[in-house]
Amino acid sequence: xFGIKFLPRPAGTPAPNLWDKFVRLLPDWLVNSxxxxxxxxxxxxxxxxxxxxxxxIVKFIIDHFRRHEKQIEKLWIFTLFFxxxxxxxIPLIVTLAxxxxxxxxxxxxxxxxxxxxxxxxxxxxxxxxRLKLEQQVSKILFEYxxxxxxxxxxxxxxxxxxxxxxxxxxxxxLVELQKIYNHESQKWNQKFTNPFTSIFFKLFRFxxxxxxxxxx
Length: 216
Known about the structure:
Layout: H1 18-25, H2 28-43, H3 45-100, H4 105-119, H5 127-151, H6 159-189, H7 195-203
């Protein structure tokens, strides 16, 4: 009764599917532009693959340098942690020194004065100046504990012995971290002397790291 009318089409031509019907609804300029783009990509596929490979290589290199950068920053953070921990112990050391009457008041005042200076010197902005102050602290503490040891006032299991052990551990870690940080930062900074890597580092804004000043 109700017949469905079909538009005539050449023999052997399949009926249009949903995609063909959708394409027919699009404006001709859009269809032509899309076909031109597809044709352009197909003709230059090798160039696109080469560009993609270059992008992947550059990303791999950037990721490699970023990992190295983060490793150096971690060494910096660990160094700052141990320096801060030692600075927090200075008031206790001054109290014990006064109690034992080993160091003269002038030396204790100097130790507290250096501690205040250290608080105002950024390790990030002035690492050499900061480490120089830290070395002065180390010398005073070494003098203090040497005098206690000569007088036989360091008793096994005492609070003072625990403080000395903690400080020895901190100093050991600081020396180790300083050596590793200097090695890695100097190796990193050498990249800026190479013409290729220097341009690469400046382009992607990689920072320079200032090594710690080693005591002569």
